[in-house]
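If it is no trouble, might I ask you for a protein's amino acid sequence along with its backbone structure tokens?
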Amino acid sequence: MDKKAMYKLSYGLFVLTSAFEGKDNGCIINTGIQVTNEPNRISIAVNKDNFTQKQVQKSGRFNLSILSEAADFDIFRHFGFQSGRDVDKFANYPDCKRAANGLYVITAGTNAYISATVEQSVDLGSHTLFIAAVDDMETLSNESSATYAYYQSQIKPKPVLQTTSGKTAWRCTVCGYIYEGEELPADFICPLCKHPASDFEKVTI
């Protein structure tokens, strides 16, 4: 089975933000869609390992900032490659504002945001699916939305291999992290972006 076929699915990229007990946080997700228009509802799927997932689950509220083609890699590094358990992602972060619901939205590299209240949650194993009522929305720019394919081809830095030793290695297709070794453990998790072994490709360095 060619797992890379999943990369051909067209979907967007978002910064999901929430807060609980006075702590703000946000993470990158790639699953956000409108599921009904009357009443207006959206759904998001969030990995249970993400600290933001816990906040959405406990607070029942979130904002979804839609990333545009104007986004640079720094926003993915900031919200995707570090955990809110360890750092305050909004400390001294300039490109944000509070929406009417009191939660942060990202104002640079985004073209709109949606504020929502959770109505249902579904346990999907590794992820939780949240179905939520739309409370508010705002358009921030006319830039096209960034798709996952656009991120892969235009935003994510191309890995630079410094040696030509002929060694076998495994490269994360999401962030470019290199794991050296003939075999990649099946349960390996990328230390940078937290993606699983299935998102690595075999390369020679």
Q: What stands out?
A: The mean pLDDT is 91.
